[in-house]
Every structure is written in structure tokens, then in C-alpha cells.
């Protein structure tokens, strides 16, 4: 198939192995506009929990010592909040995995089903943010991942694997599909930043037609069936709105905050898992730096993933099976190395954002990057004391550089109140929240 | 709606040998009294579920959805809740087995009206195949669309999980444009859809109208009134008015057709009569075509629909062999088999370790492994063979590489997969000896009797074991200084704990029976210097040695296997999860299968002729 619409095919740039894949774009460029920088928010999800003994730092407050698993963040300690003793009460029971992951950003209990009545019973917090800030940027949010939705339904526990493959829910019944190909992400961002008005106008005409057609069609349908057509209508409407804004300057003051370097377009999905992860994190950095979106979610993998980590020195096994370490020393050792590898990737993104200057600060200073898992000890599917990190200063609001330990079983949703507040979308309540967490804001 | 329960009384179907002891209402009442009444009584009963309100079976049948969900919770052990006294596994199995049988037989004797098939969009595979057939292009037009999740019976065509994200609108717009541009550059494609050009005696408008009048009904898979063409003609005119040449303007209008919900969704004509009626014939053509080809109906089906004869059982009957012989039936075989057996995850989440099993990363072998179950199934369909071949068979589908991989004597086959008769003592035959199946039921580094046993109970027999209860004791470790114990020894110890034994006594033996196959399905007689012990003993004292005897045991449980296979295929054909009423249809089809030597065509025919597939309930029909 021809994909001639996009100008640059510099596959050569990406052919080199290893370090050449980390794309050194834009570091040297000046910020496009010195105007007050927007606050961005991302959530990075790691499946299968952590080695519980090697995660939590010793001591709390500012004088804490990073644990072996968090050690890769040592140069970023001043940008970091380590959060201890939070949980999602809604994820208790159900099963060991699906309930834990799909409620990670909604703080609800998802409906147990093979599909018929699929529902997260809430909207994820990133989507609350996207509803607020989506109108300021070409994309309300980006949903990125590595693995396609896992095949089938899990009859052993009675859940569709759709739950294990999504963290972003724009409505209780709409899990947001992930983009897996870094090249396509780049192309979407690039095209949105460089709209061609004739193209946009043609597309808008087609979308108008779809809207009319869908409105006609829904008249003839029952209520349950209307719902599906409405999902499509919603998508079409938001695309049309975005297209129209992009070519009508009076309706939008948006322009990219940094120039795109077309030579940095990835050539597609790399063969190696670790290269793939890096490229997707690069795309988040690019999207934030250019202000193409202010909200992103990323899944290192689907829950219960059995990704092989034998590319990590000292690891021979697969993720989910090692997470069931059964307290065997060798499995625990490998499990921790896998956790640590994820933290290293997180650190990579943070450093990248930190290297992106933005007036007097950096993109990281103006971001909140959450990292976490829906369970603690994977062997026990433990929903208590989730492994959670929040980095970046949220535009100066966050009092970073601390290990904060709360009363056991403090709602995770309380943290989301803080984040939504710093993001500029304050909520009085989110899911089961009882009030913002103390100690987060400066 | 509640997921269907398939709690068969047969011993493989339950965690414990339920035995032949009769179970009846008084036993069930005693069960409820002992385990439920402490909480579930009176006005304050949790969930408003007051068990004392039900005096006998009729009341329970009338409130079947509620009792079905109670069955699920009791069976999986989440009810009674943590903290309350747990119910022994055998008691749970006997109660839930009895109640689900009773509820089902009550539903079936009421002659239930089939549930409606909800509107759903084309899934990713259907989109690609439909564009391919509509435009006669051989590219994957869906390459940029998100992968779909699965619901219902475990397939990605289930209406309930075919959700639409905002990103879809954007992707559909791009995909339609790319596909049309590609098709416009291919003479074979142009011939099919760009059927008119302006010229002497034909204005651009007239030519465009001609193209649209032929294209739109094919795209929407039903006849279209002139008024429905008008908006697309208007798109053409708008583009022409902007100064675009004829063909560009036409492609623009066609792009509009391909982003219409009438193309993107399976839209069926509403039944506004009060009662159950035969499905509209064009809708039936589509259901049939998407079931067996995963794509739009061809001209033969459309003509039969137009003649109004497609709903005639004899006509339908005659179409099935034709469709199953068509190359497009590979789509069905591939999608159905890979999702049913779980082999689609090979190369996705499940990847044999590259260091330990480099052989797997040889492209030709990998492809042969992947396609063996698919082409085997297609062979059964195309030639109407017995579906018992799935359990055990005297042939399989090999390439020269796979033949060597299996250690079979060389015959005259090359790189292309071919049917090969298996020699005596080949240790092959049936899906259980196929490398793809053996790999997806292993860890990347080693085989696992537990995973393989669980796989067989779930995929083959439709009786997945429940998840382990919380706080299960772990497998005993090997301690330094003591002689290392084999996995078999450790699992045997594990089963001494009655809580573990209740399920592992039926999971592990099946897996042990398959231990002669390594992660890649190669035959082995020893592992790490230890001889393989492939002996297994299932509850009820059924003993077997190795895969051949294990397959004989499974063949004696074929009723369970065919209930599962039928339910899976019916769910796939309908594009939705099954309801309790559908389960009665499954029973009927399994009976027909038994009368017809389990022939592949019988299964497909009975599904196509079944009420859920070719009838449509009216708005006033209650959902069973």
C-alpha cells in the first residue's frame, strides 16, 4: 500500500542498533514561544506488580534513600514523589489482574463479564483531564502501547481480556484503543501540526455526510444499538471539530511549541521490545514538547503479559510467570530486575523531558508523569500499597523530592484529585476520593 | 445477561468426580440452608437476594438470571464471601451442576425465542476482507486500524466488545482513501468499480451516477433507493465544482461511502412486526458470508437474496459446500481456529525463548507451525470430514520443515503445506499433538503440565478450572542439601492438600500425558537426563499412559468436546455471546452431530439453519 502522504522516509537513521534509536531531536532548538507553559500529564502502566521488599525507599520525607528497584532514578530524585500506602479499594476481589488494571485510572470496580455488559463504571482520570484541556491542543489525549489487545476471553476468571488491555476509558463503556506503531504516532502529530486546508476541507465535507447518515441510521435502531452508532458519531464529531479548528486561526490560537524534525520519524515497529518501548516514550516526549496533546497514557504491556525479558542481563524468564515467584529466591531476583528495567525506561522519559528547555524551565518541570502498577506483590495479586511514582513539578505546584507515606489503604483517587488540580481541571470528587493528599503541593 | 454455564456432570467437567450420586431439590435446599441462609434471608438480605422467597424450582426458574449469577459466584468460590465458612469443592460442584442443569432444561422446554443480534461494526479482519472484495485489491486496508478485543465466546467479532474509539474515525478516513487510490491504479480493480466514464452522450454526472448505483449497494450489502444515492452524488458534484477532475471527484464520493456507518456496521433491517420472523434475505446473505468467508456476500448470494429464496433451507443447504470449498473459507478457518485454540497469541504474548529454541525463529518452520491447525481444520471443512479428527487423526498438514521438526519419515512434500498420512506410531494426530498448541500451552522456557492441562480443559472441553483460591499454599521449594525433586513429585505433594487436589487432580494428569512433547512439540523420551513419565490418573481411577491413551480418554468424553466446539462456533457465527436459550440450540446440534458421524458440514449446516442464525425476534419478544 502506498503511504506517500508523508514526506520523509529516513529509515537509514533508524537502522543502527541500540543507542541510535534514541532520537536526539530538538535538544538544540529554542522553544517556539515563551508564553506560559501548559501543564502536561502522563500515566505509564507496568503490568504484574513488583518485588514488594525492594521497592519502597527507606525513610520518608526529603531524606529518603532510594530502594534497589528505584535506584535508576537517583539523578532525578529532586523531581520525584514516591507514594506509599495508596490503593484502589474497588480493585479488591474480582480476580488477580483484570480488576486491578482496568480500574487503575478510574478507581472503580469494573463489571465482571466476558463482554456482554462491559463497563469500567467510571471514566479514567486522564480522560477527565482530556475533557478539560482537549480543546487547547490538536489531540485531547494519546493512548499508546506495545501489545495489541490480548486474544480471547479469560474463562478461568470470567473476564474479557479487553479489560487487561486498556487503562484509558472515555466513558464507562468505551475503552480507548491504543496506537502501537511509533511511526503512525509521529505521522498523526506531524499532520495535525501541518494541516493543509484543502485536505481538511474535503475531510470535513465527508465527516458532515457521515454525521447526517449516522443520524438517519440511529432513527431506525433500538436504544441498545444506537449506543454503538453514537460512539462513532462522537469520534467523527471530535475529529471534525479538530480539523476545522486547525485551519481557522480565529478559532484556535494553537501552534506547535517546538518545531518537528521530520528526520526523526520512526520507521515502524522495531523488532525488539525494548527498542519499541523507547520509541513510544519518545513519542510522548515529542507530543508534550510540541504541545500536540497534554494528556497521554502508555502501557508497557497488557496485564498478565508473559513478555520474555531475557534481553535483560540476569533474566531468563517471562514476566507473568516470574511474578508468581512463590518466594523462590531466583525468581524474586529476576522479577526485581524486570521491575528495575521498567523504572529505567521511566527514568529515560523523565531525562528526555528534562532536557527539553521551555523558557526558564523544562518540559519535565511542567509535567506530571505517573508510573505504577495495579498490584503490589504479583505473586499474591496484592491490591494494597501500590507501587506508585509521580515525577515532574506540575508547573511548579508539586513539592517534589519526597517519599510520602500515608495511612495504609488511602484512596489512590485522592492522588488523582491533586493531579487534576495541578493540571488545571480541579474536581471536588473523583470516584471514591475523600480529599486531596497532603504533602503533594508546595 | 448472564454467561452461560457449561457445568457438565461428567467427571472431567467438574473439579471433583461428582460421581453418580443423584442430587435433588431436598439436597439443594439443605445446601442453601447450611451455606446461604445465615445472610440471605429477610429484608436485609445482601443484594436483596432473599433465598427464603423461593419455595421450589419454578420460582428459581422464573428468576433464572439471578440464580445463574449465584451459580457463577458459588462455583468460583467468591460466595460465601471471604471470612465466611468456605463450602467444600465437591458440594459446590454438585449444587451448581444440579441447578444449572435444572435451569437449562426449564429454559429449553419453554421453546425460547432467540436473542437479537446487536448491531456491530466490521472488525479489523472483516474490514480488510470486505475492502479486498469490494475493490478487488490485494492489500491489507486495515493495517492501521486498532486490533479488536474479544467478548462472548472468545472471538473478536463479538458485538459487545467491538467498541469504537475516537481514533477509529480518523483511521477509517485514511484507510478508505488509501484503498481507493490504490484500487484506481490497478487495472483489475478499475474494471470492477470504475465502470463508467464521461464521454459522448454521457455527462460526468451521469457517469458518476452509474458508478455509484453499482458501488453503493455492494458496499452497503443491500439494495439502495435512488434517494440514498443522492448525498454521494452531491459529494461528487461538490468536488467537481471545486475543479477536481472526474475521477478524483468520484473517488472522493466513494470515500464518503466507505466511511458511512452503513458500510462500517453490520446494519440489519429492523423487525417491526411483533413476532419472530425470518431474517431479511440480504441480512441473511451477509450473516452467512461473514460467518464462512469473513467478508461481503458474492454475486451468487446476493442474487439468491434478491430472488427471495435464500431463506429456503434447501437453498441454504446447497450454498454451504460451495462456500466451504472457496479459498475465502481460509479466513473462517484461521480466525475461528486461532482464537478458539489461542494460537493467535503465538508470536505476540507467547514466544518460545529465542536462546533455548532458536529453531522456532526459522521463518518457514514458524509459519508451518502456525498454519498446521488452521489448514487441518480447513481440510475437515472442505472435505466434510469427521470433526473427531480434531481429537485424533491419521493425517495432518505438513511442510518438509515441519515434517523434519516432528521427526517423521521424509515424503515427497516441499515448502508448501500438504496433507500427509501419518505412519503408525508417529505420536501425531489431532490438535493436541500440534506444535502450535503445545507451544501456547507452555512457558517460554519449559513445558508445564499445569498449563497444558488447563488449556485442554478450557479450549477442548469448555470446562475451565476456577482460579486458585486466595492464599493457596505454594509449591514446595527445592532446598539446598536435599535431593532435588522433580516437578511431578512437587505437584504430587501439592495435590495432597485437598484444596489444591480438588482441581489439580484433573488438571495435572492431562498435562503429564503430554510431557513427551517439548515446548515446540517435538517428541522426547527424556528431559534434562530424566526419563519422561507420561502416566496420568484422572478422578474416577481412569489411568492412561502417554498421548495416545490420553486421546482415547478424551474421545470417550466427546459429548463435552462437541458441546464446547458447537457453542464456540455458534457464538462466532452470531457475533455475540450465547444466552441460556442458545444453549438449548447447542444441545440440539450436538444430537444431530452424533447422528451424522460428527461430520464438519453437519455442524456448519445446523448452525446456519438454527433459529438464532436465521430468525430475528420482534421488539416485543422477551429475551430468554
Which features would summarize this protein structure in a list?
heterodimer; A: 442 residues; alpha/beta; 10 helices; globular; disordered N terminus; B: 624 residues; mainly alpha; two-stranded antiparallel sheet; two-stranded antiparallel ribbon; 26 helices; 10 strands
Strand content of chain A: 5-15%
Overall residue-averaged pLDDT value of chain B: 90
Counting DSSP E segments of at least 2 residues, the number of strands of chain B comes to 10
Q: How many distinct domains of chain A? A: 2
CATH architecture annotation of the largest domain in chain A: 3-Layer(aba) Sandwich
Order of helices and strands of chain A: HEEHHEEEEEHHHHEHHEEEEEH
Order of neighbouring strands in the sheet with most strands of chain B: 1-2
Structural class of chain A: alpha/beta
Q: How many beta strands in the DSSP annotation of chain A?
A: 13
Strand composition percent of chain B: under 5%
Decide which structural class fits the backbone of chain B. Answer: mainly alpha
What does this entry look like structurally?
- The complex is a heterodimer of chains A (442) and B (624).
- Chain A has 442 residues and is of the alpha/beta class.
- Chain A folds into two domains: 41-192 and 261-423, Alkaline Phosphatase, subunit A (3-Layer(aba) Sandwich), CATH 3.40.720; 195-259.
- Chain A is built from ten helices and 13 strands.
- In chain B, 50% of the residues lie in helices and 4% in strands.
- The relative contact order of chain B is 0.12.
- Chain B is globular, with a radius of gyration of 28 Å.
- Among the domains of chain B are: 11-109, no CATH class; 120-266, no CATH class; 343-466 and 484-547, no CATH class.
- At the A-B interface, strand 7, helix 5 and helix 6 of A face strand 1, helix 6, helix 9, helix 10 and helix 11 of B.
Amino acid at each position: 500500500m502506498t503511504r506517500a502522504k508523508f514526506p520523509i522516509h529516513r529509515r537509514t537513521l533508524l537502522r543502527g542498533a541500540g543507542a541510535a534509536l534514541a532520537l536526539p531531536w530538538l535538544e538544540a532548538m529554542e522553544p517556539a514561544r515563551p508564553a506560559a507553559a501548559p501543564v502536561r500529564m502522563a500515566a505509564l502502566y507496568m503490568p504484574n506488580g513488583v518485588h514488594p521488599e525492594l521497592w519502597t525507599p527507606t525513610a520518608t520525607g526529603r531524606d529518603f534513600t532510594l530502594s534497589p528497584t528505584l535506584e535508576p532514578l537517583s539523578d532525578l530524585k529532586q523531581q520525584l514523589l514516591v507514594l506509599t500506602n495508596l490503593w484502589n479499594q474497588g480493585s479488591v476481589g474480582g480476580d488477580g489482574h483484570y480488576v486491578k488494571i482496568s480500574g487503575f485510572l478510574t478507581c472503580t470496580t469494573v463489571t465482571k463479564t466476558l463482554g456482554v455488559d462491559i463497563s469500567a463504571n467510571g471514566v479514567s482520570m486522564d480522560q477527565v483531564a482530556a475533557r478539560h484541556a482537549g480543546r487547547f491542543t490538536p489531540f485531547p489525549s494519546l493512548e499508546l502501547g506495545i501489545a495489541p489487545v490480548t486474544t480471547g476471553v479469560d474463562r478461568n476468571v470470567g473476564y474479557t481480556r479487553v479489560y487487561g488491555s486498556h487503562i484509558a476509558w472515555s466513558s464507562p463503556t468505551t475503552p480507548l484503543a491504543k496506537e502501537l506503531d511509533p511511526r503512525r504516532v509521529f505521522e498523526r502529530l506531524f499532520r495535525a501540526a501541518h494541516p493543509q486546508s484543502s485536505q481538511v476541507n474535503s475531510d470535513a465535507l465527508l465527516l458532515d455526510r457521515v454525521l447526517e447518515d449516522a443520524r438517519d441510521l440511529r432513527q431506525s435502531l433500538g436504544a441498545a444499538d444506537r449506543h454503538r452508532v453514537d460512539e462513532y458519531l462522537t469520534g467523527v464529531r471530535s475529529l471534525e471539530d479538530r480539523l476545522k479548528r486547525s485551519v481557522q486561526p480565529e478559532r484556535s490560537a494553537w501552534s506547535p511549541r517546538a518545531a518537528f524534525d521530520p528526520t526523526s520519524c520512526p520507521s515502524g515497529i522495531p523488532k525488539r521490545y525494548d527498542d519499541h518501548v523507547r520509541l513510544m516514550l519518545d513519542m510522548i516526549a515529542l507530543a508534550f514538547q510540541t504541545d500536540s496533546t497534554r494528556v497521554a497514557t502508555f502501557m508497557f504491556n497488557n496485564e498478565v503479559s508473559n513478555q520474555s525479558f531475557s534481553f535483560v542481563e540476569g533474566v531468563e524468564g517471562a514476566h507473568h510467570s516470574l511474578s508468581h515467584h512463590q518466594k523462590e529466591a531466583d525468581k524474586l531476583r529476576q522479577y526485581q530486575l524486570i521491575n528495575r528495567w521498567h523504572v529505567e525506561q521511566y527514568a529515560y522519559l523523565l531525562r528526555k523531558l528534562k532536557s527539553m528547555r521551555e523558557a526558564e524551565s523544562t518540559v519535565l518541570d511542567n509535567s506530571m508523569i505517573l508510573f505504577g502498577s495495579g498490584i503490589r506483590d504479583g505473586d499474591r495479586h496484592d491490591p494494597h500499597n501500590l507501587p506508585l511514582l509521580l515525577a515532574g513539578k506540575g508547573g511548579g505546584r508539586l513539592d517534589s523530592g519526597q517519599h510520602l507515606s500515608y495511612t495504609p489503604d488511602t484512596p489512590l483517587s485522592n492522588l488523582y484529585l491533586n493531579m487534576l488540580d495541578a493540571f488545571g481541571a480541579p474536581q471536588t470528587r473523583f470516584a471514591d476520593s475523600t480529599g486531596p493528599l497532603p504533602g503533594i503541593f508546595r | 445477561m448472564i454467561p452461560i454455564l457449561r457445568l457438565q456432570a461428567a467427571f472431567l467437567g467438574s473439579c471433583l468426580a461428582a460421581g453418580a450420586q443423584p442430587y435433588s431439590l431436598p439436597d439443594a435446599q439443605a445446601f442453601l440452608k447450611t451455606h446461604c441462609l445465615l445472610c440471605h434471608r429477610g429484608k436485609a438480605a445482601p443484594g436483596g437476594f432473599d433465598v427464603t422467597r423461593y419455595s421450589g424450582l419454578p420460582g428459581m426458574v422464573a428468576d433464572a438470571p439471578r440464580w445463574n449469577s449465584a451459580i457463577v459466584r458459588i462455583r468460583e468460590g467468591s460466595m460465601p464471601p471471604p471470612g465466611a465458612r468456605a463450602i467444600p469443592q465437591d458440594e459446590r460442584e454438585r449444587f451448581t451442576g444440579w441447578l444449572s442443569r435444572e435451569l437449562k432444561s426449564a429454559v429449553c422446554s419453554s421453546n425460547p425465542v432467540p436473542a437479537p443480534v446487536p448491531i456491530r461494526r466490521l472488525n479489523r479482519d472483516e474490514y480488510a476482507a470486505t475492502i479486498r472484495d469490494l475493490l478487488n485489491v490485494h492489500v491489507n486496508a486495515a493495517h492501521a486500524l486498532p486490533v479488536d478485543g474479544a467478548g462472548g465466546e472468545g472471538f473478536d467479532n463479538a458485538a459487545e466488545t467491538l467498541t469504537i474509539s475516537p481514533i477509529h474515525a480518523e483511521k477509517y478516513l485514511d484507510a478508505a482513501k488509501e484503498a481507493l487510490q490504490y484500487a484506481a491504479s490497478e487495472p483489475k480493480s478499475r474494471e470492477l468499480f470504475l465502470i463508467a466514464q464521461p464521454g459522448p452522450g454521457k455527462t460526468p454526472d451521469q457517469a458518476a451516477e452509474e458508478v455509484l448505483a453499482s458501488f453503493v449497494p455492494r458496499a452497503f450489502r443491500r439494495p439502495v433507493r435512488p434517494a440514498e444515492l443522492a448525498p454521494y452524488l452531491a459529494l461528487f458534484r461538490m468536488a467537481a465544482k471545486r475543479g477536481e477532475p472526474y475521477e478524483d471527484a468520484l473517488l472522493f464520493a466513494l470515500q464518503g461511502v466507505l466511511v458511512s456507518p452503513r458500510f462500517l456496521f453490520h446494519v440489519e433491517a429492523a423487525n417491526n412486526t411483533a413476532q419472530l420472523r425470518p431474517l431479511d434475505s440480504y441480512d441473511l446473505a451477509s450473516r452467512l458470508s461473514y460467518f464462512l468467508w469473513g467478508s461481503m456476500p458474492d454475486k451468487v448470494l446476493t442474487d439468491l437474496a434478491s430472488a427471495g429464496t435464500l431463506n429456503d433451507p434447501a437453498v441454504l443447504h446447497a450454498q454451504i459446500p460451495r462456500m466451504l470449498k472457496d479459498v475465502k473459507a481460509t479466513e473462517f478457518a484461521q480466525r475461528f481456529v486461532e482464537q478458539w485454540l489461542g494460537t493467535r497469541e503465538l508470536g505476540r504474548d507467547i514466544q518460545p525463548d529465542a536462546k533455548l529454541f532458536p529453531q522456532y525463529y526459522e521463518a518457514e518452520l514458524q509459519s508451518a507451525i502456525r498454519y498446521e491447525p488452521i489448514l487441518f481444520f480447513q481440510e475437515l471443512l472442505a472435505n466434510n470430514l469427521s470433526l473427531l479428527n480434531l481429537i485424533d487423526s491419521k493425517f495432518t498438514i505438513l511442510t518438509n520443515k515441519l515434517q523434519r521438526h516432528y521427526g517423521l519419515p521424509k515424503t515427497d512434500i516441499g515448502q508448501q503445506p500438504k496433507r500427509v498420512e501419518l505412519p503408525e506410531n508417529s505420536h501425531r494426530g489431532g490438535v493436541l499433538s500440534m506444535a502450535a498448541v503445545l507451544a501456547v500451552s507452555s512457558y517460554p522456557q519449559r513445558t508445564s503440565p499445569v498449563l497444558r492441562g488447563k488449556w485442554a480443559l478450557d479450549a477442548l472441553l469448555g470446562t475451565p478450572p476456577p482460579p486458585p483460591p486466595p492464599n493457596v499454599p505454594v509449591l514446595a521449594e527445592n532446598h539446598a542439601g536435599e535431593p532435588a525433586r522433580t516437578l511431578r513429585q512437587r505437584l504430587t505433594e501439592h495435590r495432597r492438600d485437598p484444596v489444591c487436589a480438588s482441581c489439580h487432580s484433573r488438571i495435572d494428569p492431562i498435562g503429564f500425558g503430554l510431557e513427551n512433547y517439548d515446548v515446540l512439540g517435538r517428541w522426547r523420551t527424556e528431559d534434562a537426563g530424566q526419563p519422561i513419565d507420561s502416566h496420568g490418573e484422572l478422578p474416577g481411577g481412569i489411568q492412561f499412559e502417554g498421548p495416545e491413551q490420553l486421546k482415547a480418554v478424551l474421545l470417550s468424553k466427546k459429548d463435552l468436546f462437541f458441546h464446547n466446539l458447537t457453542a464456540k462456533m455458534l457464538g462466532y457465527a452470531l457475533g455475540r455471546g450465547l444466552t441460556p436459550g442458545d444453549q438449548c440450540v447447542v444441545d440440539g446440534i450436538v444430537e444431530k452431530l452424533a447422528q451424522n458421524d460428527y461430520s464438519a458440514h453437519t455442524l456448519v449446516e445446523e448452525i446456519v439453519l438454527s433459529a438464532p442464525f436465521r430468525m430475528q425476534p420482534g421488539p416485543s419478544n422477551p429475551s430468554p
